[in-house]
Amino acid sequence: MSTDPHLTWNLVTDLRQIWSLPSMVNAYRAGSIIAVVAGIAGWFLVLRRQAFAAHTVAVAGFPGAAGAVLLGAGAEWGYYGGCIGAALVLAALAAPGSAGPARDSSLTGVVQAFVLACGMLFASQYHGFLNGVNALLFGTFLGVTDRDVHTVALVAVVATVALVAIGRPLLFASVDPAVAAARGVPVRALGVAFLLVLGAVVAQVSQTTGSLLVFALLVTPAATAQLVTARPLLGLALSVGLAELVVWFGLGAAYFSPYPIGFFVSTFAFATWVLAWAGSTLARTVRA
After folding, report:
1. Fewest C-beta atoms under 10 Å: which of 7, 28, 200, 209?
2. What's the gap between Cα 148 and its chain centre?
């Protein structure tokens, strides 16, 4: 942060203050890219009611990164190994013929408890790792480098292309898996493919937001968008737009305050959901 950040009534002056720091520029660049792919993947995630499974995938990034650091490898490899590995386990545990692990919540909970225990074991075996645990769980928005931004962009492009390629049948399989399967749609294969893409997205996002705060960008904007509209394209656009807004306002608010970025990003995301929920509830009451 700047040595003397001060909020003014001039937006241009405030933006110049924020972007005078290379770390803030990289945070905005990475955050903007992450918001796009998280908004798209999150929209399908909420539609498929797999938020709990996604949370397990995100949590698995913690033992993955902690284990990789313990072994002397880079934490980024551990994030990918943990998240994608958890996605594969959840896909294997899904009941045959189902669209995914949404109904297997007990098995998902068992996996989540086990990976958390592994994470704490790896962290305890790495002496002097206490600060690293905080970074793994709550992220390092201001530690994003130019190389990280390029990696984020590459993963985001690959994940977005994959989601676009399977988007139409995935939407059908998510809304009505039984009818989709009857019409020859490979429901289970699509579920596995989506979990693998989700694992890659979560692994990349977690390196910036941390394993716990990844939910703020992955689930909340998408859940808010689906409260507002049931139209797929409009909902996807709204999900991405809301994710961008919470990232931009969260980074800006954190710059001018002593409080962490993750708090503002999560709070702004939650506030948009509360407003959307209140609006949709009021609209239903008026129509009744």
Report:
1. 7
2. 17
Question: Looking up tokens 């929920």, which residue turns up?
Answer: 277
Length of the chain counted residue by residue: 288
Tokens of 283: 């609209």
pTM of the model: 0.82
DSSP H stretches of helix in 48-141: 51-70, 75-93, 105-125, 130-138
Q: Tokens in use for 213?
A: 């705060």
Residues 6+ apart with CB under 8 A from 188: 94, 96, 97, 98, 99
- Cα–Cα distance between 277 and 94 in angstroms, integer? 31
Token code pair at residue 172: 């059908």
> Which residues are CB-contacts of 255 (< 8 A; sequence separation ≥ 6)?
1, 2, 5, 17, 18, 24
DSSP designation for 7? -
Cβ–Cβ under 8 Å, residues 206 and 152: no
